[in-house]
Each structure stands twice: as C-alpha cells, then as structure tokens.
Amino acid sequence: MISKKKFLYGFIGVVLTASLALNLALFTGNVAVVTKANYEEYKQFSKLISLKKAIEENYYTQVNEEELMNSAIKGLFEGLNDPYSQYLTQKEFQDLMEYTKGTYSGVGIIVTPGEDGLITIVSPIEDTPGYRAGLKAGDKIIKVDENEVTAREMDKAISMMKGPAGTNVKLTILREGKEISVDIKREEIRLKTVKSEVLEDNIGYIRITTFDEKTADDFKSNLKELRSKGIKGLIIDLRGNPGGLLDQCKQIADEILGKGTIVYTKNNKGKKDYLKSDGNQIDIPLAVLVDKGSASASEILAGAVRDNEAGVLIGTTTFGKGLVQRVKPLNDGSGFKLTIAQYFTPNGEYIHGKGIKPHILVEKEEDQLKTAIDYLKGKMK
C-alpha cells in the first residue's frame, strides 16, 4: 500500500510541481520546515489523501492503486473543462505517438471531444475502412461494440476501436438525430498523407490528408515533380484534413507563401509568438479546397494563404479549432496534452468555434474541385 506521504509526492511530482521538495528550508529529524505557500499547497491535497485512505480501508473489494492514481490525475485535467487537455496513460501516450508516425491498426477516423459531450468524427481518413463504410464529419460515436461511450472516455473508446487487422468492430453513430450501426473490419492503416496528379489544362493537384512526420517532405517532392511537368496552376486539397503537426504545416507554408506571418499565438499572459514563413513563393495561381472536416493545422495553412493573399479558398466553412496544445512525455512513459495558447490568423482573426469562411462558397462536394479548376483556368489566361 502506498503511504500518504508517498502518494502526495508522487501525485504532485507527476502532475503539478516538485516545489515542495525543492523549497524545503530545513530538516530536523522527521520534521520538514516549509514555506507558507507550500503548506497551503499541501492542504489542498489533504482531502484527496483522506478520501484515498477511506477507499482503501473501506471499499468492498481490493483497490487497483494504479487505476485510482490515473483517475485522480485524469480528473485534474477534466477540471479544466477543456476537451483538448488530457492526461494520457503509458498505453494512451504510446498510441498517440504511434499515430503521428503514420501507422496503426484500426478503422481510420479522426475524432475529437464534442461540446455536447459526445465523441465527434472530425473526418474519416481517405481510403480506410471508416471512409469506405460511409462515416462522415460530424457523426457522433455513441457506442463501440454495444458499449456506450462519451467524450469523457474518448481515449478508452479509441483503444476499443483499434485492434488487430482483420477483426471487426461495431460502431453506433448518431447522425442528424438518428442512430446508425456500422460494422467495420479493421485494417493496418498506413497513412500516405500526400498524393498528386496533373489535371486538365496543366493544373497541378496535391491532396494532403493529415500532417504527420513525413508530410512536408512528401509535399515538397510532389510539388517538385508537378513543377517539372510544367503545371500552370495549383490546387491544394485540405478537405477532411483534421490537422496534425504544426512544424509540418510550417514547412509547407514556406514553399508557397513568400515572406509573411503563418500564424500567431497568445498565451495566458497575453504574450504573442509569431510563426513566420521564409521567402519561397510559388509563381502560379493557387486554389485551396476546404470543408467542415478541415481543422487545426489545415485551418492554419488555409488562414495563412487567405491573409497573405497567396491564393483563394474554395469549399465550405472549416471546422473551427483555434487552440494550441503541447504534448509532453513524463518519465514513466505516460504524458499529457495541455492547451497552452489560442491561435490567430495573420490578420488577427480568432476562428475557434466558427471556422474560416472560403472566398468562394461551394456546398456540393462534387462541385468543389470543378470550381477550383475553372477559377484557375481564368487566372491562367
């Protein structure tokens, strides 16, 4: 059994601060003299320690101390009422890192905690089981294999949706007030985040499905190949792209914007940090396709293109995620995501909860690409 003192130091050391240990003024035998501030901090956790002891001594069955500790830490983050800030166990953190590397086994969807408390699909990933099963941006996942799930157990739900390739999982989704059950066979998801081709009238097309560790390099090689074929205009397709790594977004912006601001952030002290692009700029007309599944890093790139007047946005209003998270590992292999700032487009627009409106609104998905082609044709004359 973990002692009171060990529990307190472990909890504060992992989640909050080691200030109690660092600011001890004097040790005399078993007595520690601490500052008043640190004593007040200790008092905040006395209730937690007392309740933990009450559970261990009186609960009707044996208590799993690791689960109890994890739940306490998760509760600390839940107290922020921010769906993007989470404590991740060792397994959950490993899964997150695995995804950013572009390979995992599952159904191939990107989800986020919805403000209604339900797990919301940001977008299905193209050419994956979830995509082929007809899952859509905005669908709410309410059951996984008949187990009810909410945004509070999103990490658990994600773990349940993953599994060995070839096995089945049943998802119950809520779409426009109706429940729909979908049986999906899991596959090994090997994300190819960038693909390209030359369309009619020498118009280049680059599709970016997400921003993982390889996306920027793949974008650069695809753009170079298209340029070698003599393209006269370029379409970048960010529809259904849920975002990902900001540094990859930055490297892509470096290729197309010229010198300018990509995005700026503001923290809780009002400090602003600007992310700038270098001098590279494409010298052909640019159109960017967006929709309600374009989120986070996709919106940063779209906002940078719009505000720097580097191209035109075509499609529908984007998802609307204007918060920046830091992902940090802890010594035991666990980690956490914490919202540390708001982000603003170069012109100062805060898009959280409202998204970015395109220059040219095209509601029907099947008409969006054609509209972009027609627009570029007019610019290439």
From TrEMBL:
Pfam families named in the record: CtpB_N-like, PDZ_6, Peptidase_S41
Transmembrane segment boundaries: 7-27
Signal peptide positions (record): none
GO cellular component: outer membrane-bounded periplasmic space
GO biological process: proteolysis; signal transduction
GO molecular function, one term: serine-type endopeptidase activity
Domain of life: Bacteria
Keywords: Hydrolase, Membrane, Protease, Serine protease, Transmembrane, Transmembrane helix
PDZ domain mapped to chain residues: 96-162
CDD domains with a match to the protein in the record: cpPDZ_CPP-like, Peptidase_S41_CPP
SUPFAM superfamilies listed in its UniProt record: ClpP/crotonase, PDZ domain-like
Keyword Glycosyltransferase: no
Keyword ATP-binding applies: no
EC code(s) of this entry: 3.4.21.102
Family of this protein: Belongs to the peptidase S41A family.
Protein name: Carboxy-terminal processing protease CtpB
Organism: Alkalithermobacter paradoxus
